[in-house]
Amino acid sequence: MDAVEDSGTFGLSPAKAQMRGRLGWGLVLLLSVLAYGSHAPLIGLCKVDGKVPFSSSSVVVLVELVKLTVSSVLLLTHDRSSFASRGTISVRSVLPFAVPASLYAINNNLAVHMQHHMDPVTFQVLGNLKIAATAAFYSLLLRQRLPMLKWLALFLLMVAGACHAGALRGHPGEAEPAVHAHLYITPWGAVAIMAYCSISGLSAVYTERALKSQPLSLNLQNLFLYTFGVVVNATVHVASSPVGSFFEGYSSWVLLIIATQALNGLLMSVVMKYNNNITRLFIISCSMLVNVTLSVLLFNLQLTPLFYVAVGLLCIAIHLYYRVR
Fold first, then answer.
1. Which pTM was predicted?
2. Residue 301 to residues 41, 50, 147, 161, 178, Cα–Cα distance (Å)
């Protein structure tokens, strides 16, 4: 993986600058894995009588708003001079970011509605098809040809994700774990999951393309992206006419979810600007280690042999992909 560009290395020797860049990039990857992997366990902590008590669309709006606020502050404190020197920003520079914002909003709502047409395990297993979709769009839109061994690595990544769905079980005497629940999917669910994975891959790759195709600072590009994100998701929230107030069911855990998801979104922008979507896929897959660890510690669950299979496949996939030239 390439290191993140670091503008603060002036005056350092090349070796120290390179080391600083690697440490910075390692921190980005680590925080991304932690933020992504903590999402599902934090939602579990929020549940009341097995149900999520808050509006998911309101949380998405606040996550986008936090990302917009952080990007604005960073732009004013770090990129004000470069922003001012550019003068007027053209509409052509702004409009491309409306596309991924709209696609993300569609997928957020599609993920909610799909729960009525398939069980959670089926959704988690089939959701790994977004790895193939992302790789396909990555090759088509960005014209990045992947050799067969790298495709094999991504296939192993999908299998590892599927194994992760059965990596946990409850203790004896507890409610029947989800992995043994009735598996089902309706015809509409099959169509929806294919659309969900395709939109996920397209939106991620389109975002990477938009970020890399313009000689603008990442903070300014994030400002465009998250402005559209706030507008689109707020519109969706109002149109869905949720019952109750905007903040109904909120707790300190919900605030932590908003903070971690905002951090995750900002870090993923760094990954897509200075690296690529394939690295993002490996971050998501590595986050299952955090997910499983927190689930064991917080919910007293037990590991199944599938967890070790998933970890082994993940290690092989990382070796194949990043060692192949």
1. 0.87
2. 12, 16, 39, 18, 12
Any idea which residue has 């917009």 for tokens? Answer: 68
Relative to beta strand 168-169, strand 302-303 is antiparallel
**CA-based torsion, 235, 241, 246, 247: positive or negative:** negative
Nearest CA among 52, 51, 285, 303 for reference residue 177 = 303
- Per-residue pLDDT, 254: 93
Residue ranges of the chain with per-residue pLDDT less than 50: 2-10, 172-180
Res 110: pLDDT: 83
- How many residues does the structure list for the chain? 325
Other beta carbons within 10 Å of 87: 7
CB 302 within 8 A of CB 296: yes
The candidate with the shortest Cα–Cα distance to 141, out of 93, 92, 210, 195, is 210
Which pLDDT belongs to residue 50? Answer: 78
**SS3 of the chain:** CCCCCCCCCCCCCHHHHHHHHHHHHHHHHHHHHHHHHCHHHHHHHHCECCECCCCHHHHHHHHHHHHHHHHHHHHHHHCHHHHHHHCCCCHHHHHHHHHHHHHHHHHHHHHHHHCCCECHHHHHHHCCHHHHHHHHHHHHHCCCCCCHHHHHHHHHHHHHHHHHCCCEECCCCCCCCHHHCCCCECHHHHHHHHHHHHHHHHHHHHHHHHHHCCCCCHHHHHHHHHHHHHHHHHHHHHHHCCCCCCCCCCCHHHHHHHHHHHHHHHHHHHHHHHCCHHHHHHHHHHHHHHHHHHHHHHHCCEECHHHHHHHHHHHHHHHHHHHCC
- The one-letter amino acid at 180: H
